[in-house]
Amino acid sequence: MTILLSTLNARYSHASLGLRYLQANMSDLREATQLHEFVIGAKTADIVEKLLAHKAETGVTIVGFGVYIWNIEETTKVVAMLKRVAPDMVIVLGGPEVSYESAEQQIVQLADYLVTGWGDVTLPQLCRQILHGPKPLMKVHAGVQPPMADIVLPYSLYSDHDIAHRTLYVEASRGCPFKCEFCLSALDKTAWPFALDAFLAEMESLHARGARLFKFVDRTFNLNVKTSLKILQFFLDKLAANPDDPVFAHFELVPDHLPDALKESIAQFPPGALQFEIGIQSFNPEVQALVSRRQNNEKAAENIRWLMQQSQAHLHVDLIAGLPGEDVASFASGFDRLVALQPHEIQFGILKRLRGTPIIRHTEPYGLVFDPHPPYTILATSKIDFPTMQRLQRFSRYWDLVANSGRFAHTLPILLGDSPFANFMAFSDWLYGKTDATHRIALDRLAGLVGQWLRLQGMSESAVNAVLSTDYAGKPARPADLPPMAKPDAAAAPKRQARHLTH
Ligand code: SF4
Fold first, then answer.
1. Distance of CA 81 to the CA centre of its chain
2. Are 78 and 186 within one domain?
3. Are 271 and 486 in contact, with CB atoms under 8 Å apart?
4. Minimal CB count within 10 Å: which of 293, 333, 379, 394?
């Protein structure tokens, strides 16, 4: 073996699809290529030691790193140490975090080569040159995008252990035709589908090997309805054939495009089988126009309502605070509008400036101040000052703990009352004052603090205890105006989603 592909995943459960694509497409070098994944948080020296063990055992000479926003800092340390202890190792970088504005990056300066963009054909070409000459003259190699049919699908590289223990990422298409300026996919300008039959054959084989949890990374699953329907039908067939051994599939949707045929298919899924991640980001039309996001807000709201009322899918809906031109009042109104639609989870994200994204054009006119360190979170805008952005950050964290966790299903509506944003912000400010922390708050302590807050708002001790103990008992709390939902039976849904579906 002469080539090692490596990355630091955000969690052990995330199996890297990118590395597997690269390995699958190494062609004549495939047999000479191995993967070694790590998880962020590991000691730099331990990672370097393990990488070097490959060199000692099998003579690895090239190490390729997949660099992402979540691992750039740690990967930089690994590359720096590797270059000190084994300067003869050739380091090649790739991945979205080093594909744009890379000249100034320390990791790029430390590495020997960089492949920007798609690496499927460019990485093996580069490795061939490194191994057999002539020595590549350029350090930076712009990834060539091959026809989709030329890309070898990587799914057979998921091991039986991956299938049994990790989330399997899959993609039926790459790219996105929309141009939301905060998003890296805006640079794609279009989407490229893989041949559907070949893709579904790979899904069939994964399913036959025991895979039950499929996470689609397609940026807009419902772009081509005919394709979406075929993929959904694949899962419906699996559910019909194996009702006691169900599948769970996760897709990202654009919210304002849900034709009837798609709705009919979605409505057939039992609880615990389907999850949609839906980007709303902002309900403010002026902000949407500023960041070039095309979205019919009324249609989007109507579709989310339909999904909550007529389907059993688990909904995770995204909002972003800190977009140019959006003040707290506008964000609050969008948040309240979304809470009223009652999705299972609201991801309260804070804007990040991803390298290469066009949002930078608003920096001066809208006073955008970003943290210079990954993940480049927004610190202030002309509409939201730094202390307020800090409060929003804490709101986001506490929202995950209290709302998205599903642990306070009965208590949450009381906490939110008629003004969800304002009430939760008041709770968040108070909670931070009490704890001076946003992490490591044990569930028992959090429940005690939620109870204390409710009593401060005038709720009686007995009423507080009653509602909190109902939550502790895990009793269902589906809102009264939504139809009852069947409990997911033997569902493959992850625990947190299953908790929401019984609520
Ligand atoms: S936010 Fe979603 S719809 Fe917009 S460009 Fe990115 S992937 Fe496409």
1. 29
2. no
3. yes
4. 333
**Global model pTM greater than 0.90:** yes
Number of structural domains found in the chain: 2
pLDDT digits (tens, 9 = 90+) for 239-278: 999 999 999 999 999 999 999 999 999 999 999 899 999 9
Residue 367 near residue 382, CB atoms below 8 Å: yes
Nearest Cα neighbor of 425 from 454, 451, 396 is 396
Q: What's the pLDDT tens digit per position in 316-372?
A: 999 999 999 999 999 999 999 999 999 999 999 999 999 999 999 999 999 999 999
- Name the closest-CA residue to atom 7, ligand 1: 219
Largest CA distance in the chain: 79
Q: Is ligand 1 within 6 A of the CB of residue 219? A: yes
Task: State which amino acid sits at residue 39.
Answer: V
Range of the domain at 185: 158-362
Q: How far is the CA of 118 from the centre of ligand 1 (A)?
A: 18
What number does the ligand 1 atom closest to the CA of 176 have? 8
25 lines ligand 1 (CB under 6 A): no
Contact at 8 Å (CB) between 89 and 60? yes
- Select from 121, 148, 175 the last residue of a domain: 148
For residue 269, the CA-to-ligand 1 centroid distance in Å is 26
- Separation of 254 CA from ligand 1 center, angstroms? 8
CA distance linking residue 295 with residue 39, whole number of Å: 37
Q: How confident is the model at residue 189 (pLDDT cuts 50, 70, 90)?
A: confident
- Name the residue of 171, 174, 181, 183 to mutate for ligand 1: max ligand atoms within 8 A of Cβ: 183
Residues 142 and 254 in one domain: no
